[in-house]
Amino acid sequence: NVQEVTAAIQSQNQAFGIGQIGSQPAKPGTEQQFVVTAQGLLSKPEEFENIIVRTAKEGSAIVRVKDVGRVELAKRDYSLASRMNGKTATTIGIYQQPGANAVATAKLVRAKMEELKGKFPTGLDYKIVLDTSQFTLYSIDKVVHTFFEAVILVVLVVFVFLQSLRATVIPILAVPVSIVGTFVGMHLLGFSINMLTMFGMILAIGLVVDDAIVVVENVEVNIGQKGLAPLEAAKQAMTEIAGALISIVLVLLAVFLPVAFLGGVTGTLFKQFAITIAISMVISGIMALTLSPALAAIIIKAHHGEKNRFFRAFDAGFERVRQGYLAGAAAVIRFWPVSLGVFAAALAGILLMFRVLPSSFVPEEDQGYFFVVAQVQDAASLDVTKRFTTALEAIMLKDPAVQDVGTVNGYSFIDGQQNNSAAVMFGLLKPFEERKDAKLLSFDTLKRLNAQFFGRRDGAAFAVNPPSIPGLGTTGGFEFYIQNRGSGEPRATDAALQAFLAKARQRPELQGVSTTFHANSQQLFVDLDRNKAEVLGVHVGDVFQAMQAYFGSQVAGQFSRFSRVWFVILQADAEYRANPDDFSRVFVRAANGANIPLSTLITTRYVASPKLVTRFNGFPAVKITGDPAPGFSSGQAIRAMEESAAEALPGDFAYAWAGQALQEKESGSTSSSAFIFGLIIVFLLLAAQFEKWTLPIAVVLTVPFAVLGALGLTWVLGLENDVYFQVGLVTLVGLAAKNAILICEFAIELVHKGKTPREAAVEAAGLRLRAIIMTSFAFVLGCVPLAIATGPGANSLRAIGTGVIGGMLFSTLIAIFFVPLFFWMLETLSERSAVKKGKA
């Protein structure tokens, strides 16, 4: 019986420390001292075969392990079976330590595997199928290309407006100086080059030239229109605009720095982006106040001679634009009730757009690989699962976008547990440069594969993207839990689950809504007659130990091989545990030494109950996964799931979100807090700068136009309100305020010189229009490569680029007409208030 075999192995396979000959204390005059050794742990299968299990009293008969079983050197566990492209393989997952660099770790792993390959036996090879760092490298490479495209476009805009290579050099110098300084700051803060820091770099290209452009443009005006010498022109320019430059830098810092202290995943995403821009803005501001005016005094010369035809035509066209703008600004002030109505309509438009614009957490990306979740009939064997996944492999390898397919049979990817009826497969797509056709991107590839998987009779399978942010969930889409907060009974849970699934699967916003929970999984229940066992002198523990050894496995000791220690596993051979009748083959030892058949002590019956019970936040729960249907956003899918739950779930049930869906729900409030906090800080900072409470309102009131533009263009292009779009919104607070500051700073100076608020507002707007248009279009064109990006990481690039372009276009083309209006109204209100206080 099992107890005898186990006891024999344990007693005859031990490590003994015998001792030494002549060890201290020893007899005086002892000449030798040496260690006594003997064979302890066995190391070869033959040695285990010869272990004696039982002998006759006279020693005439000996029963050895090889007489009652067989011994082999084999795997410890056969519950998982891996394949690679249809061939038997062993899958090894390697994960980086927290804080480690993914790209550097992947390089070290590749180098180590090449080193180990030299020691592989003949016929053994390895292949790295899934390397998530490749997507990071491709994405950063794409962002770097976008970075240089943005630099070229910014240079062209600056040259066209300044119309002088000498003058163009000054703001362009701000780019490398600011970028190098930003890299130094990132290094000191422990940041890496990643998607978020590179986003910050690209947006910073348009921002860092702004301050220098304002300086150069003002120096040019002083030289060309006022006839000042370059040095005097530079001094005069700094007297006029130093305050505005400081305000702009402080406002942008006030917008970005608070974002760095937000909590949660959204705060983590915002942090490096915001600090990257903040560092570049500080360096740019210092350059604009020191290096740029010094270079302007040396490099810029008075224009002599006639400009070429292109620049003459450009200047004539711009002058017509300026005159039209002045007329428009004056009309906005003249018909101020209508203008305020337009402003109110813009506010209403923002509220409407936030309601109609689909929302999500982060956009899904083609990361170069995907997962397939496979499930066969419940209680099916691992062989059945293998047959099903073999058929799926053939389908996947025929697809023109797929390069390799790996399979792990016996593992439920959704539950994170071993399950003989489940499998996870991962498909590696061909390199990005070979998949430029949209049909070969992961999105269309998954559609093709799922169309072929649908309706199969031998099992169910669904191909899914990995989560956009590693670690947030197991797959893309959403993760939803139904919690039983009442009885906890599986049948009640199943009834609520089926009612919910019936509702959810009717919603057009959802697809692939499924669960791995089965309340009626077939199981064999063993009833032990404990009273009878005690009467016969059989220990209950011996009964269960025998069953475990036969139908599961039992550790019976250790052995030494290949300079390592391994487990000795005891298990019934396959033919003795193939069906329930095999319980009759099992015997247990009674106290009197008799072997008692297990069938006399137990009865078996089939029952239906869950194979796995999951808990979420302490309650019995069921995990449900799914995806938004084509044409719907994740935000709409979340609402559909919550509405289905509200309609279908009983009162003692609740639901909860996990993974990306949870972060999406939490990110909305976080981003709103960042946006509102940014507005408040900008207002307070400008109030201190202008020493008035009214003028900062004129600046802040221009922000809604930028927000409306961002929402509008994002909606028109079919994009969504995600974290990257929200990053752009926070950026627009500072950018929209920047244009208004340039006008208000000059307008308040003109008021101090005796102009009326109305005259000062229109005149200042005309004086600063060229600088505003130049800086704004430099920024917009710098963001164009983001908005039209393709390839890996393109969805994230488009999300942030489209929003800021739409916002800046509205801020530049519409909001600047309203800045004079707001300045006139608020400055007039301030003067009247001051007069009333003087009379009082």
Secondary structure topology:
Layout (H helix, E strand, L loop, with lengths): L1 H11 L6 E3 L12 E3 L8 H5 L2 E4 L6 E3 H4 L12 E4 L2 E3 L12 H16 L15 H30 L2 H25 L5 H30 L5 H30 L4 H26 L1 H9 L9 H26 L1 H21 L12 E7 L6 H17 L3 E11 L4 E13 L12 H12 L6 E5 L13 E7 L5 H15 L5 E6 L6 E7 L1 H6 L4 H12 L2 E8 L2 E7 L16 E3 L5 E3 L4 E7 L5 E3 L2 E10 L5 H15 L4 E6 H32 L4 H6 L2 H14 L6 H30 L4 H31 L6 H46 L1
Q: Mind telling me the CATH class of the domain at 323-356 and 692-840?
A: Mainly Alpha
CATH-defined topology of the domain at 323-356 and 692-840? Multidrug efflux transporter AcrB transmembrane fold
CATH architecture type of the domain at 323-356 and 692-840: Up-down Bundle
User: How many DSSP-defined strands?
Assistant: 21
Average pLDDT score: 85
CATH superfamily of the domain at 323-356 and 692-840: Multidrug efflux transporter AcrB transmembrane domain
Strand order of the largest sheet: 6-5-8-9-7-10
Overall spatial form? elongated
**Largest sheet descriptor:** 6 strands, antiparallel
